[in-house]
Specification:
mainly alpha; two-stranded antiparallel sheet; 2 domains; DNA Binding (I), subunit A; 157 residues; 6 helices
Length: 157
């Protein structure tokens, strides 16, 4: 990829970014290999999954707005019910719609009740990502309204 001469000309920030890209490429290759080994795959789009699931998050049971785009925590994403790393397939019976944050949070921190998941998503919308002074940030009116909609969502609909 980089010869020693080109690598030495990179700044420390560029080297860090290149290392990160290399790690992500390795992770993506590993995930693709697992998906091939786990069995058949179905062809689908995020819109098809959203329509099938009624635009409801399978984790927190609140509405998923299809207008949000990544990296917004409320953007729609595909959630594997049985994770790929645990041997799950990439088929329609093993995928569901979820908020991007709910999906990554459930993978990182384990399963939660829908109420707990909604509260964590609302907290992320209000206060943003981790960091010093995170709770001291003053959310804008749109974030407050969205967090209110998320926490007031009922499990049934």
């Amino acid at each position: 990829m980089f010869d020693q001469d080109r690598w030495s000309r990179l700044t420390e920030e560029e080297r860090k970014a290149e290392r990160h890209r290399a790690i992500k490429r390795r992770q993506n290759r590993r995930r693709a290999r697992r998906m091939r080994e786990n069995g058949p795959r179905d062809s689908y789009t995020l819109m098809q999954i959203g329509e099938r699931d009624g635009w409801r998050c399978v984790i927190c049971h609140s509405t998923v707005n299809r207008e949000f785009k990544a990296p917004d925590p409320c953007s729609p994403s595909v959630h594997h019910l049985v994770e790929i790393v645990a041997g799950g397939t990439d088929t329609l019976d093993n995928i569901a719609l979820a908020h991007r944050f709910c999906n990554s949070d459930s993978y990182a921190w384990g399963p939660k009740t829908p109420a707990e998941a909604r509260q964590r998503l609302a907290d992320r919308v209000l206060h943003g990502k981790h960091g010093p002074g995170r709770r001291d940030r003053v959310p804008d009116a749109g974030a407050v309204a969205l967090a209110g909609d998320i926490t007031s969502a009922s499990e049934g609909g």
